[in-house]
């Protein structure tokens, strides 16, 4: 497909990007691409994840791990300044989400396709002649990083490329979906941060000047800086739109402000599915990637309600009923889809109508897209406003002629009108005032009240601090973020004995493993090493069912009846090293013939370390598969490590029984060490 994708990319550059650049700045009016060649090296898809839980049955959600490393030739010139520049190579790495929706009962079964990045992809561009380009008047404030930000933000939520496959699909609904919810983030305080500032050339340890960067999709917030404090109190509140979950995360990084380069103080990533389930979380979280430090957050998941029944309560909760201000916490969300205008007045020349919707609460959001030489412009753009009190605020929209800087019409809608409208939505042509007699603006506006639903809890519900939150560190590693209270006995924190390893060193070596298993099963205290704080089979063998089954299997092994079989069962893994991503990728497929820990079977999960790293941040875990001896996981994990280094390391894979919370039935079901010195690591292999 690559040659045809290249044809599409060339059209995109010439027909969409070129006119947009020309219109962006008067100095760029003679901008053009002289050559667009994206190269022979196609885009790679390194992995695909399909969501099966928490998704609408009328949609399919895929996440594609994509990487593109291409030697391309893209030449551009600006004739007016005799300036030439170009791009020699581009690298793009990121997670691209593809949504097929709605699914329909007729060919082609899929109504439309939406494509976007969940968070900013990593983009590296190798320019030629960039300095000539940045010398042009009006561009000298630009830089390489600003250009990269503009490009990557164009691809990140809520921006998306939507391709309709069926004409009846309401494209506006797909291109500009109503957010799934609003995340209110109370960024409260931190404790025990690292002191990064030093005095007298490092002899005296000082404090830090911490601040936080908070990200949800392409929404970025930055807290104030607290000077010289290792336990800062910020007490700030942010509100972010959540368009997509599963997969969207709250990402927080703490830094120490410095005159030169700000030092890293820790990070945290929280899966928003957990916040949505809990509705309200108020907890201390341990920071990742640093030896110490914790962060206090209060997170509220606000549901978008299409009726005003809860509005008065919400206004009271955020104190909007008392004050006269139009800012503060939001009680509701206004979603506006600006479609088109008709019969705009024509002055001496047909101007360039520019839709500029803005709210009187000093919240200005301009439609940047100017439609040239027309009195019937089509914008198809979407705007979202946080509203403090809809009973008092108005939406004001003005259509302007960019060339003559004059108004072509004006519209004012009190938001209280929406409160009484059906579904709190208006979708119509609005008559413009101070305009032509038939001048109209077609818009769809919807108001949604932000409501914090109370979680229905069963009487035996444990405190939310026991929720394990998946978190991802900078390299994209999945770690389990636990609050300080959640260390449960046997969850990897108990100091219990571990049998001496007697398993094979190589991935091809299943034969040898069976002969050494007796050492594992009948291990006496004199052989144990106490290095790994995980429960072992030997120490849990007091469970009668497991003991009985293990003895039976070992007896079969001695009698030769199952020689060549593995008496503790087997695990199927795919292992490969991706040189492009500089990562070791381990896919845990499934296990078979495991030992039953109780009459109901076992609750197995798989834990993986890349030895010698046994820190918590280096641990990868699958989900727990309930009551089965043949679990299927199909989960992929990666470790950031180069090929020469990984060939000196060993993969430690353990299958463990989860048991319930505080259950005695925890322990090791079996373990294998896989040496990674194989020449075939770059190609990869799959094996039981």
TrEMBL record:
Chain positions covered by the region annotation Disordered: 455-535
Membrane topology label: Peripheral membrane protein; Multi-pass membrane protein
Alphabetical list of SMART domains matching this protein: C2
Keywords: Calcium, Cell membrane, Endocytosis, Endoplasmic reticulum, Lipid transport, Lipid-binding, Membrane, Metal-binding, Repeat, Transmembrane, Transmembrane helix, Transport
Domain C2 residues, every copy: 165-285, 310-434, 567-688
PROSITE patterns: C2, SMP
Residues annotated as domain SMP-LTD: 1-166
Biased composition (Polar residues): 481-491, 512-527
Single biological process term from Gene Ontology: endocytosis
Subcellular location, record wording: Cell membrane; Endoplasmic reticulum membrane
Origin superkingdom: Eukaryota
PANTHER family: EXTENDED SYNAPTOTAGMIN-2, EXTENDED SYNAPTOTAGMIN-LIKE PROTEIN 2, ISOFORM C
Protein's name according to its UniProt entry: Extended synaptotagmin-2
Organism: Ursus maritimus (Polar bear)
Origin organism lineage: Eukaryota, Metazoa, Chordata, Craniata, Vertebrata
Gene this protein is translated from: ESYT2
């Amino acid at each position: 497909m690559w040659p045809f994708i290249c044809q599409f990319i060339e059209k995109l550059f010439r027909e969409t990007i070129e006119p947009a650049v020309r219109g962006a700045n008067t100095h760029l009016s003679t901008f053009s691409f002289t050559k667009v060649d994206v190269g022979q090296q196609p885009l790679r898809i390194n992995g695909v994840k399909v969501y099966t839980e928490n998704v609408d049955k009328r949609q399919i959600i895929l996440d594609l791990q994509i990487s593109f490393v291409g030697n391309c030739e893209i030449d551009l010139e600006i004739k007016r300044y005799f300036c030439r520049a170009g791009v020699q190579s581009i690298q793009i790495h990121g997670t691209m989400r593809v949504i097929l929706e709605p699914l329909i009962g007729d060919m082609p079964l899929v109504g439309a396709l939406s494509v976007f990045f969940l968070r900013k992809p990593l983009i590296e561009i190798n320019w030629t002649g960039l300095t000539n380009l940045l010398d042009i008047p009006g561009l000298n404030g630009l830089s390489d990083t600003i250009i990269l930000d503009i490009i990557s933000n164009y691809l990140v939520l809520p921006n998306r490329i939507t391709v309709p496959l069926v004409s009846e699909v309401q494209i506006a609904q797909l291109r500009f979906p109503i957010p799934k919810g609003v995340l209110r983030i109370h960024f409260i305080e931190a404790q025990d941060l690292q002191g990064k500032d030093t005095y007298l050339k490092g002899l005296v340890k000082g404090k830090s000047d911490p601040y936080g960067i908070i990200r949800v999709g392409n929404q970025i917030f930055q807290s104030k800086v607290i000077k010289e404090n290792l336990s800062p109190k910020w007490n700030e509140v942010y509100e972010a739109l959540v368009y997509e979950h599963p997969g969207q995360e709250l990402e927080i990084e703490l830094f120490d402000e410095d005159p030169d380069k700000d030092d890293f103080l820790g990070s945290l990533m929280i899966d928003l599915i957990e916040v949505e389930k809990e509705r309200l979380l108020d907890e201390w979280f341990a920071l990742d990637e640093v030896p110490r430090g914790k962060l206090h957050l209060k997170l509220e998941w606000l549901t978008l309600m299409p009726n005003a029944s809860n509005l008065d309560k919400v206004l009271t909760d955020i104190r909007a009923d008392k004050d006269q201000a139009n800012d503060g916490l939001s009680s509701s969300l206004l979603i506006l889809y600006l479609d088109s205008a008709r019969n705009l007045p024509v002055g001496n020349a047909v101007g360039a109508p520019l839709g500029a919707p803005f709210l009187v609460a000093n919240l200005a959001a301009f439609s940047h897209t100017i439609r040239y030489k027309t009195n019937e412009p089509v914008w198809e753009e979407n705007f979202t406003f946080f509203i403090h009190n809809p009973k008092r605020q108005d939406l004001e929209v003005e259509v302007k002629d960019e060339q003559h800087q004059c108004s072509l019409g004006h519209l004012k809608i009190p938001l209280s009108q929406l409160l009484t409208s059906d579904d709190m939505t208006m979708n119509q042509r609005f008559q413009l005032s101070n305009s032509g007699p038939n001048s109209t603006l077609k818009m769809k506006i919807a108001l949604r009240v932000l409501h914090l639903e109370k979680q229905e809890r069963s009487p035996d519900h444990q405190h939310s601090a026991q929720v394990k939150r998946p978190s991802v560190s900078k390299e994209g590693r999945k770690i389990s973020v636990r609050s300080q209270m959640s260390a449960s006995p046997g969850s990897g924190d108990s100091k219990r004995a571990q049998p001496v390893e007697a398993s094979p060193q190589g991935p091809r070596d299943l034969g040898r493993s069976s002969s050494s298993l007796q050492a594992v099963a009948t291990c006496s205290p004199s052989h144990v090493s106490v290095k790994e704080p995980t429960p072992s089979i030997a120490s849990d063998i007091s469970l009668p069912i497991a003991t009985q089954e293990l003895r039976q299997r070992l007896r079969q092994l001695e009698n030769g009846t199952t020689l060549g079989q593995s008496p503790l069962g087997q695990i199927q893994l795919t292992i490969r090293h991706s040189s492009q991503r500089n990562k070791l990728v381990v896919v845990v497929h499934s296990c078979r013939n495991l030992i039953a820990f109780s009459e109901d079977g076992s609750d197995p999960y798989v834990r993986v370390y890349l030895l010698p790293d046994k820190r918590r941040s280096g641990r990868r875990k699958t989900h727990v598969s309930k009551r089965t001896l043949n679990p299927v996981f199909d989960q992929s994990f990666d470790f950031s490590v180069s090929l020469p280094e990984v060939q000196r390391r060993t993969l430690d894979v353990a299958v463990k029984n989860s048991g319930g919370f505080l259950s005695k039935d925890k322990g090791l079901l079996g373990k294998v060490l896989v040496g990674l010195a194989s020449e075939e690591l770059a190609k990869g292999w799959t094996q039981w």
